[in-house]
Design brief:
Strand content: 15-25%
Number of helices: 8
Shape: globular
Distance between the termini: 39 Å
Keywords: Hydrolase, Protease, Zymogen
GO molecular function: peptidase activity
InterPro entries: Pept_HybD-like_dom_sf (IPR023430), Peptidase_A25 (IPR005080)
Order of helices and strands: HEEEHEHEHHEEHEEHH
Protein name: GPR endopeptidase
Helix content: 25-40%
Pfam family, one: Peptidase_A25
Length: about 260
């Protein structure tokens, strides 16, 4: 199988003759959305130990930022992975100048930032959000940047948002993956590895597959034809789901208004 960040592609029924000992997988359909949960209970497998949730829309549709049911589903799954209280730092990973890699920075633009602000609603969870940009341009690794931000903000958890790689073209722009294992790209060349062992706090990840490795070789990638729409709608939807998970006392409409969407 080519590179994939999607746990259910590695351990699902279509993965083939692969050792899946220590892996639990279950799927449920809610309306027009399929939710697949993968729990990896031991080390040494293709993905780090932990919980993964894949939320998939029908094969003929793209993620819709106006789909409240989809937002609520993603928010509920993310809330189950998050610590129940405490500040959260949302980190938008990627290069905003490269469309396929811009999901993280674009999502940060939709996050309701509450740290340092006085909002008229009580019970608001402290949230900070930042997109540090391309680490090579700053001469500082993503790991060092993340550690510095964690040290400054002192959150209870770090939530990383990044573009993902899929092995299946029909899943591009139609799937969300959430995990509590940190950021662990399938491609070891990416240098985007962030986890609890490195940073000393829970590290979660959220993303949408926006590219796949071309069959012709590892130096070529395939992206959706409507890539601009995938990134725009996907970032807005992820932002809404993250806001809803972090601020459950507010409705989706209230959160969109407060976040300026």
């Amino acid at each position: 199988m080519r590179f994939t960040d999607m746990a259910d592609e590695l351990f699902g029924p279509e993965a083939g003759a692969q050792d899946t000992g220590g892996v639990r997988l279950a799927s449920v359909r809610r309306g027009g959305v399929t939710v697949t949960r993968v729990e990896i209970a031991r080390d040494g497998l293709a993905r780090p130990r932990g919980r993964y949730v894949t939320i998939e829309t029908p094969s003929l549709s793209l993620l819709d930022e106006r789909d409240t049911a989809l937002i609520e589903t993603a928010a509920a799954e993310l809330a189950a992975l998050l610590p129940p209280a405490g500040p959260v730092l949302v980190l938008g990973v990627g290069n905003r100048r490269v469309t396929a890699d811009a999901l993280g920075p674009r999502t940060v633009q939709h996050i309701l930032v509450t740290m340092g602000h006085s909002l008229p609603v009580r019970g608001i969870r402290p949230v900070a959000a930042v997109a540090p940009g391309v680490s090579q341009a700053a001469g500082i690794s993503l790991q060092a940047l993340a550690a510095a931000l964690v040290g400054a903000v002192r959150p209870a958890a770090l939530l990383c948002v990044d573009s993902l790689c899929s092995a299946e073209p029909e899943r591009l722009g139609r799937t969300i993956q959430l995990s509590d294992t940190g950021l662990a790209p399938a491609d070891p060349r990416s240098g985007r590895h962030l986890d609890a062992a490195l940073l000393g706090l829970p590290v979660l990840a959220a993303g949408i597959p926006t590219l796949m490795e071309a069959r012709e070789g590892k130096d070529l990638v395939v992206t959706p034809r409507a890539l601009d729409s995938v990134i725009a709608h996907g970032a807005a939807l992820l932002g809404a789901a993250i806001n809803r998970a972090l601020q459950p006392r507010l409705t989706v409409n209230q959160l969109c208004w407060l976040a300026g969407q």
